[in-house]
Specification:
The protein is α/β, with parallel strands linked by helices. It has helices at about 20-30, 40-45, 55-60, 70-80, 85-100, 170-175, 195-205, 225, 235-250, 270-280, 300-310, 330, 335-345, 425-435, 435-440; strands spanning about 5, 40, 115, 120, 125-130, 130-135, 185, 215-220, 255-260, 285-290, 315-320, 355-360, 365-375, 380-390, 400. The chain has 15 helices and 15 strands.
Length: about 450
Amino acid sequence: MQYKSYSLQNFKTIPQIKNLTGQQIMDIEVVGSVLPFRVNEYVVENLIDWDNVPEDPAFISSFPHRHMLLEKDYEQMRALIEAGASDESIKRSADEIRLGLNPHPAGQIEYNTPLYKGKKLLGIQHKYSQTLLIFPEQGQSCHSFCTFCFRWPQFAHMDEYKIATPENGLIHQYISDHPEITDVLITGGDPLIMKTEILAGYIEPLLSRELPHVRNIRIGTRALSWWPYRFLTDDDADDLLNLFGKIHRSGKHLALMANFVNPVELETEAVKEAITRVQKAGAIIRTQAPLLKNINASPEVWTEMWKKQVSLNCIPYYMFVARDTGAKHFFSVPLVEAWQIYRQAYQSVSGICRTVRGPSMSCMPGKVQVLGVTRIGGEKVFALNMIQARNPDWALRPFFAAYDETATWFDDLKPAFGEDRFFFSDELDGMLESGETWTGYE
């Protein structure tokens, strides 16, 4: 299958679009002018059930929906488009709306970018001591754009909000000077949108004997679900698998951090063959996804996904809470509901599927897990825990928040028992004020 993508400019040429109403087509144009939109032919032909549109989960994952924008924002953009406004006016209005959608949650630009030799390493994030994230500038796109993507600013033509770096020796010098770094995550966008020779420029220096402390190389990707032919028939698919084999033979652990949000993404023959090829090349596939209203917010969906993933020799890894950005009002579920879905799904699978952790929020202090709802001293509370934290000492220290059935994100929560602060709040405030969250790594 040859890669072919559709965007606002040509999506009306998709044959199945004739199944949509005029209003639904207008909704795609309006919302797609604000939130990034791209879908490819594999998704259109193999994943979307067009008899179930617009409720089909794969359709919602890839096509803009009217309610992904707030009503006032939708009407603002619709009026401009119907009036035939200039591209410049539409972009100006879209940018205004985008700025109100919390384009970079959890301080990922302000507080995760390390200083090195007196300069910020733009396109690098070092939030947790052991793990460094690299955002290759050539990998800031995807085979299809997810409507729920928390990194949507990477694709929204807002250059000042992009996180991207060119391949250069400075990254590897930084890693060499920081022996606490054991894991390097190549992310994006999707780094597998890049040609293999470009990806290799970022990865091969990590295999050097000069970086023995780097033990694990991770690649964050949606390619298995959105474009499995990246591993099958793309002109450098074999080169990519050979690169995976080279990493494996070097003695490093290679983990493909694969995002699957819907069981149908695991069912095609193409994805099954791609998974097998990746595994034969020496990579371990760990699966993760956000919990999303309108797409996968039921225990039955997660039970089915985890079982299918294990049957394909993949390791369920994370259930994330949808981040507080973009179309969060359309996708977010209350934390108590997220915990109930996780708990019911977890109870429905054997221990071999229970490697998955969640529901987890990647928020300012760290990855906060909702352990559950309980009563202590007669007060109903959320029990919480940090899986990862800006200060490693915060991890695995249970803490409690007042019960709030409407809360959808960590920032909605307040400490339990009448306390003013969480146990880490004062230290976190000091870190943010002083800049230690990244200057501490210099």
